[in-house]
Design a protein that fits this description.
single chain; alpha/beta; two-stranded antiparallel ribbon; 48% helix
């Protein structure tokens, strides 16, 4: 009986042990960590080390990123620099007078000194004529001016005529203040004005395009630039820089692209956007290369499939003097030049080139460049120019 009781007790203990073991296993599984959802990402876990904290969370790498990202303090965002505000026309004209007076005053002072002599003999008049010719005024205009001065000084001399007043009036007549010097930068019927800028290499043509854009932006015109000088990568980049500084779009093409194609695209962009003015920079042309000049004519014809060209500006280096007359004649035959831009007039240029080029082409000088600064291009004013010559 005792043996039977002992056997029953052993069986009961074994059964209880099995029940406890099964119960512990079930509870352990229920309390174990749930598996991560299937996010299709790789999990990189730092290998355990003696220094690593036990509760470090694995970092998930995913594309797109995992939902939970560490908070990182970002640096403050710097604001983009503001666009430049070009100088207005009024202050440009003030500087025009100042710089012309300092660079061109020798001509006027020389003429005044000769005309103020007590006796105006033939030698004096020959000296006056030589002074004018040296100033690049040209033979024809020089002879006309000398003849008018002789007549007025002879007729009015006995009444105490002021030599300075007479000289100013006659020089002003020579420069011709009646010429229309306004830039035709607006088109008709809602179309943009199209300004085609031409000239030989080295005259400052691309720079002039950028400076004209600044003048128009200062007057609240909307502008698009066309970089049709596709044979010089530097010219395209230079024009793009000018445009970026004042927020003007520049239409460009790959290096070597047909210039007429780029010009066409620029004008089309201007038409589509409804801007006020499109300015097209062209490649510098050698006036003795007939093929290149023909290509310039092609650019103008292609542009006019989109909108009429309202202004053709010929950029001339004022320091070239009478040599610039050859360039002026050839360009005017190809593209019907409507205005002249004289650059570098503040250097060694002779002021008489203004008179000479106007007489040669029968079109006005509309803009003059007086320095290397971004706003050193000013509308030409005949009265200010003559006053600057006289000092």
């Amino acid at each position: 009986m005792d043996a039977l009781a002992i056997l029953i007790l052993v069986v009961a203990l074994v059964g209880l042990g099995l029940v406890l073991a099964v119960t512990g296993l079930i509870v352990g599984r229920r309390r174990g960590p749930k598996p991560l959802p299937n996010t299709h990402t790789d999990v990189i876990v730092r290998p355990p080390t003696t220094e690593a904290p036990e509760d470090e969370t694995p970092v998930e790498l995913s594309s797109p990123p995992a939902t939970i990202e560490p908070e990182v303090e970002l640096p403050p965002i710097e604001e983009a620099p503001g666009l430049e505000r070009p100088e207005g026309t009024a202050s440009r004209l003030v500087r025009l007078r100042q710089r012309l007076a300092s660079s061109q005053g020798a001509l006027g002072r020389g003429l005044l000194a000769l005309l103020s002599r007590d006796r105006l003999d033939e030698d004096t008049w020959e000296s006056i004529e030589d002074t004018l010719l040296t100033a690049d005024i040209g033979v024809g205009p020089t002879q006309e001016l000398v003849e008018r001065l002789r007549t007025r000084m002879r007729v009015e001399g006995g009444t105490g005529a002021d030599a300075r007043t007479v000289l100013r009036e006659e020089l002003l007549t020579l420069v011709d203040p009646t010429m229309d010097r306004r830039l035709q930068v607006s088109g008709a019927d809602g179309q943009p004005g199209v300004v085609l800028v031409v000239g030989v290499n080295g005259a400052g043509k691309t720079t002039t395009v950028g400076k004209i854009a600044r003048i128009l932006v200062a007057e609240d015109h909307s502008v698009v630039l066309g970089a049709a000088d596709t044979f010089r990568a530097a010219a395209v980049e230079q024009l793009a820089t000018w445009g970026e500084r004042v927020g003007v779009e520049v239409v460009r093409g790959p290096e070597g692209t047909d210039p007429a194609s780029v010009a066409f695209d620029a004008v089309k962009e201007g038409v589509d956007r409804g801007v006020d003015t499109v300015i097209v920079d062209t490649a510098g042309r050698l006036q003795n290369k007939a093929g290149l000049m023909d290509e310039l004519g092609k650019v103008k014809r292609v542009i006019e499939k989109q909108a009429p060209v309202t202004e053709v500006l010929l950029v001339l280096d004022a320091t070239t003097g009478q040599n610039g007359m050859i360039q002026a004649r050839v360009f005017s035959e190809v593209v019907d030049v409507s205005g002249i831009v004289l650059t570098k007039l503040d250097g060694s240029a002779k002021g008489g080139i203004v008179v000479a080029v106007q007489r040669e082409l029968g079109v006005p000088v509309k803009l003059v460049g007086l320095g290397e600064g971004a706003d050193d291009l000013a509308p030409f004013d005949a009265g200010a120019f003559v006053d600057a010559l006289l000092g």
